[in-house]
Amino acid sequence: MEVKKNPKKDLNKSSGVFFAAGLAMVLALTYVALEWKTFYGTEFINVAQNVDEELIEELELFEIEQPKPPEQQAAPEVIEVVEDEVEVEESVIESTESDEDTEVMEVEDVQFEEEPVDVEVPFAVIENVPVFPGCENEKDKRACFNTMMQKHIVKNFRYPEIAQEMGVQGRVSVMFTIQKDGSIGNVRMRGPDKNLEKEAARIIGKLPKMTPGNQRGTPVRVPFAIPITFKLSN
């Protein structure tokens, strides 16, 4: 048996109309919901209702006093004129120009005091080198000085025991100055170890007093440098 449909009873015939109507209604409700405005009542809200009354009682009002403007002194009605009775001595400026009656000192009568010259002249360029004791009668005092220095170092040389135990060796550069009175000063060392530097300073400290170096007949300070080599034997 065939089932026949009635064309007048088709349920899908008006579905599009109902869908469009429903969509329009939903959009309308959404618009109304978004544009809806609410207003609070005019009832006064006390913002101080949660404030502790004890804190309010402790606050004290204070006033700031404005400084009073300074009082203006009234000008005197009568101005008195006081005469200046103090006498002022006028300073007289004497002329420094000489005239015919002025006596002029002769140049020969003027005495000049020569200030001592404190300079250093290197050992290599000084006119008269310092004289090491024992080189007074030598013709080449510069060569004799170097020879006596080497003898002095060999005679007083002593290798520090702590440096030997540590195996420390090397060259110590010693710089000192022969002062204007022939003494030794301004001793400086530079080497690989403090113990070697200390020994080099001890050797230089034993140098005898010398005849100071002269430059143009004037005693001057003469700096001098010499290396001292510390080498351990195999």
TrEMBL record:
Domain of life where this protein originates: Bacteria
Predominant subcellular localization, coarse grouping: membrane
Annotated InterPro entries: TonB-dependent_transducer, TonB/TolA_C, TonB_C
Intracellular or extracellular location(s): Cell inner membrane
SUPFAM superfamilies: TolA/TonB C-terminal domain
Similarity section: Belongs to the TonB family.
Protein name stated in the entry: Energy transducer TonB
Organism: Maribacter algarum (ex Zhang et al. 2020)
